[in-house]
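Let us begin with a simple case.
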Amino acid sequence: MNGVVVDHAHRAIMKADAAFTDLSAAMKFAREQATSLVNLERAALADRTLTHEGALLQIANAAPKSGERVAMRLDAARAKAKAEIDGIAKRTASPPSPKGRCRPGA
């Protein structure tokens, strides 16, 4: 019987770890996308074949697309982590105290 409880707890921990690993990966992706935009800006502004306005337009077109990808990834990871937190809270919540009984120390 004890092995079943340990196995269930181990699976719950692995599931929680996966949710938070996804959140960490999404945050890493956001940093990578920000770095890519900075590199694009530097390259576009250094490109002598583009006018200054053309370089700014290239950057302005890339930024929202990058932001959408980041937002989608962060939102999905956040939802997964929140669902896991809510599940843990539900599994570990204690039942309400019976009505009409005095609580210790009350």
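The second case is a distinct protein. As before, the sequence precedes its structure tokens.
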Amino acid sequence: MAKSRGTRHEITDGAELSDIRVAASNDPADCLQPSLAGLLFCATCERQMIPMSRLNGRVYGAPCGCRLSPVDALTVERLVYNAVEAQHPELLTCVTGNDLPAVFRQVLAEVRIGGAADELEFIWST
């Protein structure tokens, strides 16, 4: 799979996240299918982030120790959804939460996350 050079995508103060279909559903099976599993990497050490469940919800943890705390999964998934929607809106017209992992893998090779949840670099599949 060829990779194109990533583009840095940051949310600025005052920017709104669109209320997208990534929002948690009532289906417990959705929690077993993190949409960024295998795609989310630490930007510092390039190790893969691991999806985990916590009492307060789903998170992506860093086994590398570069991060002091895990990243809220819903926040990162919303940001990735917004970026994919901006690049490929036709792919997300009828997508449900269960279909997101496949769509993300279709267009993304990697998502690298920096020190904050909104410091994302996208490596698009070509």
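The helical segments are 73-87, 100-107. Residues 1-32 have pLDDT under 50 and may be disordered.
Keep these points in mind for the review questions at the end of the chapter.
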